[in-house]
Amino acid sequence: MLVMSTNPGSVVRVKGELEQDGKSTRFVRVFYTLKAVIKGFKEGCRPFIGLDGCFLKTEYKGQLLSAVGRDANNSFFPIAWAVVEIENKETWNWFMDQLLDALGMDGNAITWISDRQKGLLDVFHNLLPNAEHRFCVRHIYDNFKKKHPGSKLKYLL
Fold first, then answer.
1. Which of 20, 80, 90, 131 would give a disulfide with 33, using CB separation of 3.0 to 4.6 Å?
2. 116 and 93 in contact (C-beta within 8 Å)?
3. Is residue 13 within 8 Å of 30, Cβ to Cβ?
4. What pLDDT, on the 0 to 100 scale, is given for residue 75?
């Protein structure tokens, strides 16, 4: 793989599944981070990681999962990303396993922020029970507006 030969220490992990014919393999998901990014996060960023997922609107569909940090200038610092088949507990667990392994840490000294995606909540409960985990206020506000439409409760949040 070109990334591995030009940027030693980078982490690229691809998961495939054997097709029913038993001869060919089908792409399932990929995790990706660069050695320089790992070093930059460990040496120059705050102990903070934000996680999010979004739809890929291409012919192949899927989801993009990402992990970002904050650097000393308070700017976003992309750490890792993955393309997965769907955003659920299994794929978040796989992504978090790959991320923690690539960073070489257990994750308990990090403050994590995410939306309230159910699969991800379970992963934090099981994989990082002692880590600080916070929720993105924007997602909380959006969910609040959906559940309580109108102006009566708008300014209480």
1. 80
2. no
3. yes
4. 95
Hey, where are the domains in the chain? Answer: 2-156
CA distance 131 to 101: 16
Q: For residue 154, give the DSSP letter.
A: G
Alpha-carbon distance 115 to 129, whole Å? Answer: 17
Determine the pLDDT at residue 131: 82
For residue 120, the model assigns a pLDDT of: 85
Mean residue pLDDT across the chain: 87
DSSP symbol at 151: S
Q: Which candidate, 88, 54, 48, places its Cα nearest to that of 70?
A: 48
Which residues face 14 on adjacent strands? 30
Specify the DSSP element, H or E, that contains 2. helix 2-6
- Tell me the one-letter amino acid at 42: K
Residue 24 identity (one-letter amino acid): S
Q: How far apart are CA 51 and CA 43, in angstroms?
A: 20
Q: d(Cα 110, Cα 68) in Å, to the nearest integer?
A: 12
pTM: 0.84
Amino acid type, 75? S
Alpha-carbon distance of 131 to 70, in angstroms, equals 18
Sign of CA dihedral 18, 20, 26, 28: negative
Asked whether the predicted pLDDT for residue 123 surpasses 80, the reply is: yes
